[in-house]
User: Fold these one by one.
Assistant:
Number 1:
Amino acid sequence: MRIGYYPGCSLLGSSREFDESVRALAQAIGLELVTVPDWNCCGASSAHVLDHRLSLALPARILAQAEAAGLTEVLAPCAACYNRLTSARAALAADPREAAEVAAIIEMPVTGKVTVVNVLEVLDRLRDVIKEKTVAPLGRKVACYYGCLLVRPPKVVAFDRPEDPMSMDRLMAAAGAEALDWNFKTECCGAAFSVTRTDLVARMSGRIVAGAARAGAEAIVVACPMCQSNLDMRRPEINAALGADHQVPVLFITQALGLALGLDPVALGLQRHMVSALALKPTAASTTV
Amino acid sequence: MTSAPHPSSHGETLKAKIEQAIGVKLNHCYQCGKCAAGCPVAQDMDLTSCQILRLVQFGNPDWDRQALRSEGIWLCLACETCSTRCPQEVEVPKVMDFLRLEAVRRDLAHPRSKDILAFHRAFMDSVRETGRLYEIGLVADYKLRSRHFLKDVMLAPKMFTRGKLPLLPHLIQGRDAIKRIFSRTLGSAKKGE
């Protein structure tokens, strides 16, 4: 299977282990990634605060670049990029006049031929392959945390159930983990307030970490760089706000599945987390099938 | 008495502007409160989503200004929980985006919005220059704008040793096209200086 790939800015920097693990897992399950040529930032959670038209034009250029390269489907692993690209695509399709104006701004045609998919959607299609290739069943209790951007607004993203999504739970079960029933699957982590209102992020992400710990999770599994960095990098602030010492690690779905497939933990970027995830490496005993 | 807009401000009310600019009909809101009930930051807002919608529904210039001055509009994270649950399908985060821009335009933005705006402007300035986000540049720019020089100084070395903080920006080929996109939308001069 061949698919367009839009890594996005976070995956080149603060969340590079997401990029590393997407690439490693893709190779292991026979998914060929074709990077969108000369891609730009999608505008993330900032463009729409400053200018509506800018928040459409930046993702529109990405879609146009993908279209010019002959791609029909683009995987955007970052949930924020996925959401911006999907929202812009829907907005342009709904308003041809605005679409023409945006095409003039970016100096490129955008016809809407390119569709955008998130990492759970693509992996869900390959769930049987993942199950088949699992050599080190995880055997851990995990809390699957979806956050906001993968499932909302449901009319735009049209992916999974907005209040109780299950695609990640199914994938983790396929890899031999026990996906827990817990309460904070789609609560907001505080997202872009990480720097400006760390107090709010500590409280919001704290509720999520505490909820996962209470359910007995040995790991929180995510598919969004903002969720990952808030739950992981902000752990000192979270623990201070909670008056607790939660050490539950936060893994990207691609890292967790990669471990189950027996991939090298360093190739999956497991050493890059602030809250150590290295204890999740499969032991010699668990790799025997 | 009807709740007709103030005669002198007809067409200039926030309600009319919101409907014209983003197509959201505020009268669809019947004040059930579900948006604020599920909002993860409602407890920190001076006015919640539901109260802000109510203020703006009447087309009263004083109440319009009250909504624009609130801190609540700046705390919306666009998590879309409200719009997902709204029985009337009111797209609240879109309204919040509009109110924030309007508050800045009319110079009514809440004092505590400064850091939040500084962050978004620093973010987009980085993209304007390189085509992609340059995280070190963003942090440096934000510190200069917000004057919070010591914030998170302990985090950078930890990120660096984990390979999460590349020193050099990624420059895309189409930087000129990106600059033109910015000048056609945000305007040619950097905003917020």
Note: The radius of gyration of chain B is 20 Å.
Number 2:
Amino acid sequence: MTAPAAGPLSQALLELAPDHPDLLAVSADVVKYTDLAAFAARYPDRVLNVGMAEQNLVAVAAGLAKAGFVPFATTFGVFATRRALDFIEIQAALNGTNVKICGGLPGVMSTFGPTHQAIDDLAHLRAVPGLTVIDPCDAAEMRAAAVAAYHHDGPVYLRLLLDKAAPLPEPRAPFRIGEAVRLAEGTDVAIVASSFLVGLALAAAQRLAGEGISAAVLKVSTLRPFDAPAVAALASGVSAVVTAENHTVVGGLASSVAEVLAREGLGRPLRAVGVQDQWGPLGSFEYVTAHHGLTEDAIAAAAHDALRAAEAGAGAVSR
Amino acid sequence: MSLERAAHRMRLRAVRMAEGKGEGYVGQGLQTADVLAVLFGVELRLAGTGGEDRFLLSTGHYSIGLWAAFAEAGLLAEADLDHYGRDGHPVAMSTIDGALPGVELTGGSLGHGPGVAAGLALGLRMRGSDGRVFVYLSDGELQEGSVWEAAMFASARELSNLWAVVDINRTQADGPLVLEVEPCAAKFRAFGWSCVEADGHDIGALLAALDELRGRPGPKALICYTEIGHGVRLIAERERAHFVRVGDDEWEQVRRELEGTAP
């Protein structure tokens, strides 16, 4: 039997394992579906399966951390946050426990519909004091984020973006927790993007340039702590702001950006690309993303809409 | 006899704490004294005091009993008990992990202790430690599904260093058990645990039960049948309440009754 291929999480764990004997993985019956199989094939004694029991997954991980291990606990994002939220809040976040909760199938990545699409995990966890929340934008960043999560002393929720995201152009800035990165400069509109929408935002910005619109792109891969200074600096140089996220527009990136704009007194029209406060269908990634408008087209359209609102607002003020 | 005397001192401390605060889980403090006197008096060899055992109080609002036991074991100064439940003081109405040396779990949200204890027991075994993990939980807590997630996991992983102390007082927040938990021992046995039942106010029976469990395989459950407010009729006979109200004028009577029963 050939060894399973290592995706970005297994690659990170395989890289860390030889020098870090405290590294463990724990899963709630999704070793194969959260990219732990390759790590488990190489280190079978360092992968524990608790079965289909997400509360116990987080509790056991917290107990292992108390014994001095650094567990990566994997389940799907929906189950981590909908079934085990109390355990994440109390046994991970409140206690500052050194566990890394990994949420598979982030946003609309699942073809299996609302039961498996974690469209609200960030909203739940953004409200949890003491927790670091990471939403990587492509596979390479996913791998780097897992390594960074290991080295971060404290509880982390890491969204497992394993595939389907277009890789960012290289070379890229090294991944650092809490640091938003400006990928394109622009003077008309700013696109603040996360997850696989970062790649779509870059494509949308290029298209907008062809239409005479100068669009900046900011990649936000850490939702908490949120890089408010980067967002404020970006927004102050443009007339309108668009957010684009693999999540409902309630409580995630759009809300985080809106809070910064309000706090800084930066009155800019804001348009949010994301799941529009609704449940979605089962179906292929292409079908589901088209249904929710998680597309390059939708980002470009939102930029136009936001700029129209900015112009109308400017006219209103001058009258 | 010395354990009976320790339990009696712990009951006096529980009453002192609750009276000082003017309210509190005095019923649970009285109820847990015998079991905790045995555990802290002769059974546990705690990490930080020369041993490797850990004690996790899942039922956080039983902290009043834990503080009394800590004082008996020398982990807390007697004077610290005067701050029970006072704003800003770690001798609190519930337990926060690390708030005081020896507090190993944040225990207020019920059903968390067994899973954390199972993970800790597994981790200690992987580290080659001989330490045991004791988790104290209550019967009402057994209604939380997470308890049984942990119970299934503990036996499947043969965590013979995990001990659960299940305190059956047949009371929960809404009063007398609102959902039957018996047969409790049969449930744990069905989940693959070694299990012994004992009268939670009979020191000799508790010691014998612990001895009986010691050599048994897999995770172990000591099921203790207790009475809320045990040792003070005024409290035990009051309407079976989770959070007993004692009038300002009644504390003197409570203390007199307790002092009159010194072993």
Note: Residues 32 and 105 of chain B are 18 Å apart (CA to CA).
